[in-house]
Amino acid sequence: MANLNAAFSALADPTRRAILARLALGEATVMELAEPFQITQPAISRHIKVLEQSGLILRRSEGAKRPCRLAPAAITEIDRWLAMLREALEANYSRLDGVLAAMDSTPTQDRP
Amino acid sequence: MANLNAAFSALADPTRRAILARLALGEATVMELAEPFQITQPAISRHIKVLEQSGLILRRSEGAKRPCRLAPAAITEIDRWLAMLREALEANYSRLDGVLAAMDSTPTQDRP
DNA sequence: TCTATATATGCGCATATTGTTATATAACCG
DNA sequence: CGGTTATATAACAATATGCGCATATATAGA
């Protein structure tokens, strides 16, 4: 639960989300990731470092290149946390549905 | 896609995530939300403001109280964005499974 | 070895975030 | 009306973040 800080913080930046979206298509190098953006390469390198330290991406070495790819673990962890909220909302909806159904079918029903 | 900045940024703070977790149990007032924490009430008020402005929570007025509850829309939006990564990872796994299956069942299979 | 390519890091600056204290606003209660 | 409760805002300090520029490191290749 500690890494959620870093993971959500990393996701809060649109450049970093765009990088992740690109990585969803497959592994990519720093230069490839930097290409669509107007900011400098050092800035991209730092974004990548943030993503790496947050656990959202993994890297390997291929000569001078350091390709990046998505890291399943962190994404799963985030998903698990959000599931809590999702389920809470679903539960609320169910409850509401129940109330509405009760109102509809049994107006002023007797209940000991 | 614009609100994702604010939403993820809001989620990056553990106090705010704890507030959301509390709200998953149901509506709560500022004082109720502040109770488990050691930080001051103004600090909690500001966390709530951040959550509200990010769209993650909704509020109503009940006399002097301003109870908070989870907002389905923002949470759904986050979920949709993460689904992209989730599906990408699943696709990668499938591809890997395919490769492994091919290696296992048909070593050096001919393919025009 | 010299040079080009790929990536990382240090520095300085502008801006944002978080917490605290003090205070303001709003509604309830007697 | 006056006091209490609930919540918000202002002002300030400390810290963090993001960017560009310049530069360092690492590998490839002639």
Describe the 3D structure:
- The structure is a homodimer of 112-residue chains.
- The first copy, chain A, has 112 residues and is mainly α.
- The first copy, chain A, has one domain (3-105): Arc Repressor Mutant, subunit A.
- Chain A is built from five helices and two strands; from the N terminus they run ααααββα.
- Chain A has a two-stranded antiparallel sheet.
- In chain A, α1 (3-11) packs across α5 (72-105).
- The longest helix of chain A has 34 residues, at 72-105.
- Mean pLDDT of chain A is 86; it is low at 105-112.
- Chain B binds a DNA duplex (30 and 30 nucleotides) through α4.
Summarize the structure.
The first copy, chain A, has five helices and two strands. Chain A is mainly alpha-helical and 112 residues long. In chain A, strand 1 and strand 2 (68-70) form a beta hairpin.
Count of helical segments of chain A? 5
Strand percentage of chain A lies at: 5-15%
Rg over CA atoms of chain A: 22 Å
The residue fraction in helices of chain A comes out at 55-70%
Mean pLDDT over the residues of chain A: 86
SSE run of chain A: HHHHEEH
- Provide the CATH top-level class of chain A: Mainly Alpha
Q: What is the number of domains of chain A?
A: 1
Biggest sheet of chain A, strands in spatial order?
Answer: 1-2
CATH architectural grouping of chain A: Orthogonal Bundle
Report, as a whole number of angstroms, the end-to-end distance of chain A.
45 Å
Largest sheet of chain A: 2 strands, antiparallel
